[in-house]
Amino acid sequence: MRITQGMMSAHVLQSLQGNMRRLDRLNEQLSSGKEIRLPSDDPARIARSYDLRRSLGETGRYDANLRDAKSWLNATDAALNEATTVLQRARELTVRGADGSLPQEARDAIAGEIKQLKEALLQVTETEHEGRRIFGGYKVDRQVGPPDLFTPGGGPPPTYTYAGDSGTMDYPIGPSATLQINVVGGPVFKPALDALEQVEFDLVNNPAQVGGADLAALDTALDTIIAARSVTGARTNRVEMADMRMKEFDINLKELLSKNEDVEIEEKVMELSMQEYAYRVALQVGARVLQPNLADYLR
């Protein structure tokens, strides 16, 4: 086969273009910091990146749920702590009111303070977090649901009716893992409100009845609220542990994604230097191969 000057020229130009493409790819990788950008670069690695990014998206959603759940549980714990303080004070006043030597004026004053504690507890039951009532079950919106979760009726003394429902708010906090974050207010606060109404009524109308039964009702109500607070604390601990796991999982996914996509700067700089050297050598060789001939002078 006869090798012509034209064939040699075409081969040199083809080699130079190949070198330039490799240089362009290395420059693009260094400027973007990414080893792969298009599916045609490496289909298998691109598919791996899609899977990792999808997992990162799911992790982000779980992380948002965990933050929301933790803030909701913290608000619940603060409200239950206030309710506990209210009932402890009510118990102290009931013990004082059971003293048979107290004049009625003193009992009336204690009854007035019990009434204020009852109002404070009613405010606790209406506690909101980000515009949502935390003890109403699914009836979290005051504009749509009942204006008050607890209303007195009957009596005397009146007993309270819970206007919320027993709906539970379950948050996904991980793959195949959910957590109830709300406390249904009816079973938790109704015994306490009824007990406070009874104590207030007895202090004013039945002084001789103040004591054993009233204290027992308050103790039962206090135990109920403390139990709800214990459950809330356990849920908070679970959220914190899940949050730690999710953060570790997020870090691992980002490391895997970086290894799959990002360039090794030192390695790419070395490759770029070698490719630039190869390109300069190719130019020198091409200059020797593409020597001018007689036809070039005749043009």
Automatic annotation (TrEMBL):
<dbReference type="Pfam" id="PF00669">
    <property type="entry name" value="Flagellin_N"/>
</dbReference>
<feature type="domain" description="Flagellin N-terminal">
    <location>
        <begin position="6"/>
        <end position="138"/>
    </location>
</feature>
<dbReference type="InterPro" id="IPR001029">
    <property type="entry name" value="Flagellin_N"/>
</dbReference>
<dbReference type="GO" id="GO:0071973">
    <property type="term" value="P:bacterial-type flagellum-dependent cell motility"/>
</dbReference>
<dbReference type="GO" id="GO:0005198">
    <property type="term" value="F:structural molecule activity"/>
</dbReference>
<protein>
    <submittedName>
        <fullName>Flagellar hook protein</fullName>
    </submittedName>
</protein>
<keyword id="KW-0969">Cilium</keyword>
<dbReference type="InterPro" id="IPR001492">
    <property type="entry name" value="Flagellin"/>
</dbReference>
<dbReference type="GO" id="GO:0009424">
    <property type="term" value="C:bacterial-type flagellum hook"/>
</dbReference>
<keyword id="KW-0966">Cell projection</keyword>
<dbReference type="InterPro" id="IPR013384">
    <property type="entry name" value="Flagell_FlgL"/>
</dbReference>
<keyword id="KW-0282">Flagellum</keyword>
